[in-house]
Amino acid sequence: MRASRSDWTPESWKVFTALHQPSYSNAAAYEDVLARITEKPPLVYPGEVDQLRTRIARAASGEEFILHGGDCVERFIDCNAETIANKLKILLQMSVVLSHAARKPVLRIGRIAGQFFKPRSNETEMINGVSVPSYKGDTVHGFAASEREPDPERLLTGYFHAASTLNYIRSMIDGGFADLHHPYSWNLHSIRDTANWDEYQEIVENVLDSIHFMESFGGVSDASLGRIEFYTSHEGLHLGYESALTRVEGAESQRRWLGLSGHLLWIGERTRALDGAHVEFFRGIANPIGIKLSSKADAGQVVELCETLNPQNDPGRLMLIMRLGAESVSEALPPILEAVTSRGHQVAWMCDPMHGNTTTLSGGRKTRAFASVLQELEESFRLHREAGTTLAGVHFELTGDEVTECVGGSIDLNEADLETNYQSYCDPRLNYAQSMEMAFLISRFLRNDR
Ligand code: PEP
Ligand code: CO
């Protein structure tokens, strides 16, 4: 059912079908938590959201390149200084490598400070031979098999974990963590003996050399080397939580609503139905928004999503995050590029080479092959070049820690190695070495395109 599109409110989604929402047995307790979240300050400020929108518009037209990445799902236990610092560090180091290769600024957006909710394809999963409700994120319930009953108090706990993560990121940036004069260590020891090492080492040396040159030349102020911008994002899945953090802004004539749980929110592949509650909610918030699109999306649907979610065709409003899979990308991407561009829709085209390349091993572990991730990226760069469109950026599930979740890369992690340190509660992430190597390899494509 679709109500009239003119009567949007932060709660108008409620008359549409909302998929992947937890069901709370105590409705009064749930409403009470939402009311308390509504009274809390928003997590981000409207001016920052507007800056991000401007920068996404610049990336869409090829003036910047976007690096969007982080965990599949954030865990409350990872809300600690070291893990947060590692998450920021990997994105920073990748971004300087990419920026150096592309000769343009890199816009960094973390899947961080709010990526606590997961849609799941199956309602149940097996843990030690017992079927339990699938894990949907720490803001919904606990990870332990015995804690899978949704608990509304966890929404508030999630809000505070997001606030604490964001506070630490902001203070690290203000305190000089991102200062390029003092590059934090590049821990590349694990790829030191591999075939491409000479090339990688040369890239790092060139990057550091350029920083020193800028400093000594004096053409760049100290302030611009020491300060970076960093934006947060997550899937806007839990509509009760998102609407509790949606706030009105501006004088009467320019009143607008913003989802202030993060700078950028995206609609997932499983909840992007045109007549669904998520599309209804997202059409009314003024943030930049992403839409995840798998190879199941047809070009007509994508065009309709663009029309519904960006009727004014504002640049910087829409990011189409294509997660098509290495096998499907060459068939699936061109018709969508053609349909969207021929109708004049301005969008930022992103490549998420993770979500279409997930495999499940016989023991039940999910993994992704580094080679498939790279192949989808390479194909995407080529297809955009052939279509005359711009690949605005890349979207990864990654972490700055030494986990063992994806196979391959020059560290040659194999299936047996996955048990060594598999931490993810949901999808497998590239680890520190695999992420850095991915940035070095993307550098080749960016140099070709410039
Ligand atoms: C995700 O980004 O973790 C995710 C669930 O993606 P998608 O909606 O593309 O499946
Ligand atoms: Co994921």
Please give a structural write-up:
With 450 residues, the chain is an alpha/beta fold. The protein has one domain: Aldolase class I (TIM Barrel, Alpha-Beta Barrel). It has 12 helices and 14 strands. An 8-stranded parallel β-barrel has the order 1-2-5-8-9-10-11-14, surrounded by 5 helices. A two-stranded antiparallel sheet has the order 3-4. Helix 10 links the parallel strand 10 and strand 11. Helix 1 packs parallel to helix 4 and helix 3 runs parallel beside helix 12. The termini are far apart. The relative contact order is 0.16. The model has no long low-confidence stretch (mean pLDDT 94). It binds phosphoenolpyruvate and cobalt (II) ion. The site of phosphoenolpyruvate (PEP) has 9 residues, from loops.
What is the CATH fold-level name? TIM Barrel
Low-confidence stretches: none
* Number of domains as seen in the coordinates: 1
Helix content: 25-40%
Summarize the biggest pleated sheet. 8 strands, parallel, barrel
Spatial shape: globular
Overall CATH architecture: Alpha-Beta Barrel
Arrangement of strands in the largest sheet: 1-2-5-8-9-10-11-14
Oligomer: single chain
Strand content: 5-15%
